Structures are given as structure tokens and as C-alpha cells.
Amino acid sequence: MKGQSFILKTTGEINYIEPENGFHFTLEELKEAxxxxxxxxxxxxxxxRMIVDEDGxxxxxxxxxxxxxxxxxxxxxxVGDALVCHRSQIR
Length: 91
Fold this sequence. Notes:
Layout: E1 5-8, E2 14-17, H1 27-33, E3 39-43, E4 48-53, H2 65-70, E5 82-86
Antiparallel strand pairs: 1-2, 1-5, 3-4, 4-5
């Protein structure tokens, strides 16, 4: 494990999370972390990834201020809950 994974909620709450198997998240775990739906992987750094709902904007999910601040490489914003983890935790 390469650090702490966490879910950034739209409410500003942060929930720490680890894969059930201790190594990498299953697709089901990723979907559950963001509230269901199709996942999209957002690259934050060479080692950090953010998992978001691919259809979040179409679904009119609430703005996630904390996740949007982490995603500083774009003028885009993040909506819905987001999972931040090390790249090795995604297969």
C-alpha cells in the first residue's frame, strides 16, 4: 500500500478507505465509493488517481469543492463524491 486512500464527499467530509483485499480496489468497490454508476479515472499526479462518476454532470450531481481543488490542472470542476488513491490500487 502506498499511502492512505480517501473519499472526498460533496459535503466536505473525508472518509478513509482501503481495498478489501488490502492491495487494489475491485470495480464494485470503486463504484460503491462514488455512489454507483460508470467510473472515470482522473490523473492527478504520476502516482495519484481520482475516481469519479463518468456521468456526474449529466446527472446534475452537486459540486465537489475539495475534489475540484485537487484537480487543478484544468478549468473543469468535479461533481459527486470522489475516491483518491494510489495508481497501484487500480487495476
